[in-house]
């Protein structure tokens, strides 16, 4: 069966001619590391995010006019729309994550002198507070509460209560985003793979004064970024899913995005602390609904939606091959199938919202299960052509270094497919 898959991949290579680096590396221009050094982008760390310079380079390469509309259907924390704004393009973000949408709205909001004055005044009032009401009225998941030292958790609640008492929505949102951005640093746990794990060196318990000082420092950075802003915000943040029918306020000309990878990461678990402590999750039902509307990319939830389409390489080659392997979860073949059905749906829904000649750039990663490399980049390009897109090329940005366990299982001739790539498509109506 593995030879059948190799034959499929050889045909794809002949059609799409993927090009790029030939050595394994941990560095990639499409990750979020650079963003944490950039004003406004750095307000919230988001390891699944883009490099702002990568987004700008793509826009400048394919956009010939400031009138072009830029769209990101997996908007994340707003890196695409913010980067487009910096280039004077109107931009639209769509995402299913309440945390991502909130961060996008805060980072991409317009702040005038009056807003800044109120923010500075509020920050001063906060900076001299010795204590605040610690009444816990939030019914936060006990699991999340357990990720903080008791003193630290009480301090967070006091800060939350202060924030909730703020009347100005822009000031409230900046304070809340700042608190969210600090949660992992003061927690006894850190993000790790598909969830969190206990830190080897736990932070000292945080008193209210300790947490207050961290928050003041963070907000001062935000103030400096706002004061240094040189562009006018031109964007729309849409809360929803690209997997459901939607109509954008304007059709797009440039689409730059990165769908979740089929790496079994459940983002409702990875960002569990932030989603609960921010108030975006109030019940387990909130988490279930978030999962249901999200991309099929992990095995920790069974989605109710089912595809009626057939993708031959998935249904006839990859799924049977995976089913023949010893996998850590027997849901993986079903997950992989659902993942590509969702990619199909995303591309199909896009056709109602883009202009003729629109250029799409999709950053994707090729996962590996039991030594089977799923070449998402080439399969995506093939799916796109069945919908009427033209593949302009596949740019390989890095060769990924798998785990030692996976490396042992991957045959040498298949290792070249373990990579992260940019798939460039163009849309023209028939």
Write the layout of secondary structure elements.
Elements lengths: L1 H15 L2 E2 L31 H11 L6 E4 L6 H8 L3 E6 L2 H11 L4 H15 L14 H4 L4 H15 L4 H18 L2 E3 L4 E3 L9 H20 L7 E5 L12 E6 L9 H4 L1 H6 L6 H10 L18 H12 L8 H19 L3 E12 L2 E2 L2 E2 L2 H11 L2 E11 L4 H6 L9 E9 L3
Parallel strand pairs: 1-11, 2-3, 2-7, 3-6, 7-8
Antiparallel strand pairs: 4-5, 8-12, 9-10, 11-12
Helix pairs in contact: 1-13, 1-15, 2-3, 5-9, 7-8, 7-9, 8-9, 13-14, 14-15
Descriptive notes:
By secondary structure, this protein is an alpha/beta fold. The chain has helices at residues 2-16, 52-62, 79-86, 98-108, 113-127, 142-145, 150-164, 169-186, 208-227, 267-270, 272-277, 284-293, 312-323, 332-350, 376-386, 404-409; strands spanning 19-20, 69-72, 90-95, 189-191, 196-198, 235-239, 252-257, 354-365, 368-369, 372-373, 389-399, 419-427. The strands form 3 sheets. The chain has an 8-stranded mixed beta sheet with strand order 1-11-12-8-7-2-3-6, sandwiched between helices. Strands 4-5 form a two-stranded antiparallel ribbon. The protein has a two-stranded antiparallel ribbon with strand order 9-10. Helix 14 packs across helix 15. It is globular. The protein starts with a helix and ends with a strand.
């Amino acid at each position: 069966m593995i030879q059948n898959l190799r034959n499929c991949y050889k045909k794809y290579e002949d059609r799409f001619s993927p090009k790029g680096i030939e050595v394994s590396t941990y560095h990639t221009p499409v990750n979020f590391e650079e963003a944490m050094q950039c004003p406004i982008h750095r307000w919230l760390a988001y390891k699944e995010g883009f490099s702002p310079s990568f987004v700008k380079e793509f826009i400048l390469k394919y956009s010939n006019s400031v009138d072009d509309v830029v769209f990101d259907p997996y908007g994340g924390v707003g890196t695409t729309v913010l980067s487009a704004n910096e280039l004077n393009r109107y931009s639209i973000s769509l995402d299913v994550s309440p945390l991502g949408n909130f961060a996008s709205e805060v980072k991409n909001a317009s702040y005038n002198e009056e807003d800044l004055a109120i923010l500075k005044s509020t920050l001063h009032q906060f900076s001299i507070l010795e204590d605040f009401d610690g009444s816990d009225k939030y019914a936060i998941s006990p699991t999340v509460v357990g990720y903080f030292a008791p003193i630290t958790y009480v301090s967070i609640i006091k800060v939350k209560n202060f924030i909730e008492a703020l009347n100005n929505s822009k000031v409230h949102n900046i304070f809340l985003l700042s608190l969210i951005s600090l949660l992992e640093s003061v927690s006894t746990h850190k993000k790790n793979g598909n969830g969190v794990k206990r830190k080897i060196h736990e932070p000292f318990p945080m008193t209210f004064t300790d947490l207050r000082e961290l928050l003041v420092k963070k907000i001062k950075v935000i103030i400096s970024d706002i004061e240094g802003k040189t562009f006018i915000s031109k964007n729309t943040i849409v809360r929803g899913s690209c997997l459901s029918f939607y109509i954008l306020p304007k059709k797009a000309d440039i689409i730059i995005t990165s769908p979740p990878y089929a790496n079994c990461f459940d983002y409702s678990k990875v960002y569990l602390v932030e989603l609960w402590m921010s108030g975006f999750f109030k019940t387990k039902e909130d988490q279930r609904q978030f999962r249901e509307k999200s991309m099929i990319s992990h095995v920790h939830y069974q989605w109710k939606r089912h595809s009626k389409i057939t993708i031959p390489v998935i249904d006839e080659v990859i799924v049977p091959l995976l089913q023949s392997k010893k996998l850590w979860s027997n849901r993986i073949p079903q997950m992989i199938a659902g993942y590509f059905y969702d990619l199909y749906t995303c591309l199909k829904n896009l056709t109602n919202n883009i202009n003729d000649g629109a250029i799409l750039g999709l950053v994707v990663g090729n996962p590996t299960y039991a030594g089977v490399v799923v070449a998402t980049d080439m399969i995506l390009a093939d799916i796109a052509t069945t919908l009427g897109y033209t593949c302009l090329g596949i740019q390989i940005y890095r060769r990924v270094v798998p785990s030692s366990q996976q490396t042992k299982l991957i045959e040498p001739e298949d290792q070249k497919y373990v990579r992260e790539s940019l798939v460039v498509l163009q849309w023209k109506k028939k």
